[in-house]
Structures are given as structure tokens and as C-alpha cells.
Design goal:
single chain; mainly beta; Glucose Permease (Domain IIA); 8-stranded antiparallel β-sheet; 3-stranded antiparallel β-sheet; globular
């Protein structure tokens, strides 16, 4: 405890900045550097991971608030309580499909958690269009990230805790 901590207001106490990360789909968790798109695998947009899904039910990878839903329904931006921004990007090069295989049901401003279905994706339609079906989760404001841990890779069930991320205090 610092000498002048008594001067701080109670609401200035640091929040727990570490939050859990969940698998957004049934399937296989892979490190971000294994994703076939270099924009993601080279971490140009931030660090993260992907799940190669075995079905099309996509849930939220975090507890947070929906910041944006792309008009083509292939991506959702989420804000964590600790200030970290998350991009859930469904498939690779899927913006070209104009929302076709996606039934994204969350809206801007929605509070979501690991039990929230974000979208239902027609994986057969993605395959027919020649698109990679990786469900990519990227932390886009890495300057706010103190620590990111992906504790699990390989086969996984949706909503399972697979890691954590913490923000700078």
C-alpha cells in the first residue's frame, strides 16, 4: 500500500483486469500463427487464436459488449470491461459473401457472454464458396494488453475456458 493511497477514492481501485477467454465453437483450437491468412497469422491486426469449427453455432469468446456488427455479418467487434477490444472474424475472405452464410443475431450495444450465440454459420456454404472456415479471435488494441495466455489447443467444446487476457493497469 502506497503512502498516499488513503487519498484515492474507492472507485479508483483497480478492477480485476484479467478475463477469461472461451472457445467460440466446437472444434479445434489453433494458435493465430497457424491461420492461413497472413494478415492474421503474422499478427498484423493483433494476437489471438482461431477455432476450426465442427458445426456452425458460434458463441462469444468473451464477456463484453458488442461494439459493432459488420454489415456483411462476418465479423463482430466486442469491448471487454478491462478496455481490450476483440474482433471475432468468421472465416477468411468471407466479406465477399455479403452475409450469405451468416445469421448473426447480436446487435451493437448488446451485453454478451460465453453462452451468447453470436451467429449461426452455414459451413457447407463456406466450403462451397471455397472459403476457410476458421473462426478467428483477435485482440486488436495490443497496446492495452499486459498478458495473453492461450492455455489450450486441439479439440475443444464451445464455451470452454481456453485462456485469459489481462489489461495494463
Amino acid at each position: 500500500m502506497g503512502l498516499f493511497d488513503f487519498l484515492k477514492k474507492k472507485d479508483e481501485a483497480p478492477k480485476n483486469t484479467s478475463v477469461k477467454i472461451y472457445a467460440p465453437a466446437n472444434g479445434k483450437v489453433v494458435a493465430i500463427d497457424e491461420v492461413s491468412d497472413p494478415v492474421f497469422s503474422q499478427k498484423m491486426m493483433g494476437d489471438g487464436f482461431a477455432v476450426i469449427p465442427t458445426d456452425g453455432v458460434i458463441t462469444s469468446p468473451v464477456v463484453g459488449k458488442v461494439l459493432s456488427v459488420f454489415p456483411t455479418q462476418h465479423a463482430v467487434g466486442i469491448l471487454l470491461e478491462n478496455g481490450i477490444e476483440v474482433l471475432l472474424h468468421m472465416g477468411i475472405d468471407t466479406v465477399q459473401l455479403n452475409g450469405g452464410p451468416f445469421e448473426t443475431v447480436v446487435k451493437e450495444g448488446d451485453d454478451i457472454d460465453e453462452n451468447t450465440v453470436v451467429s449461426t454459420v452455414d459451413l457447407v456454404a463456406l466450403e462451397a464458396a471455397g472459403k476457410d472456415n476458421a473462426m478467428i479471435v483477435v485482440f486488436t488494441n495490443m497496446d492495452k494488453v499486459a498478458d495473453f495466455n492461450l492455455d489450450t489447443t486441439g479439440p475443444i467444446s464451445a464455451k470452454t475456458t481456453i485462456g485469459s487476457i489481462s489489461a495494463n493497469a
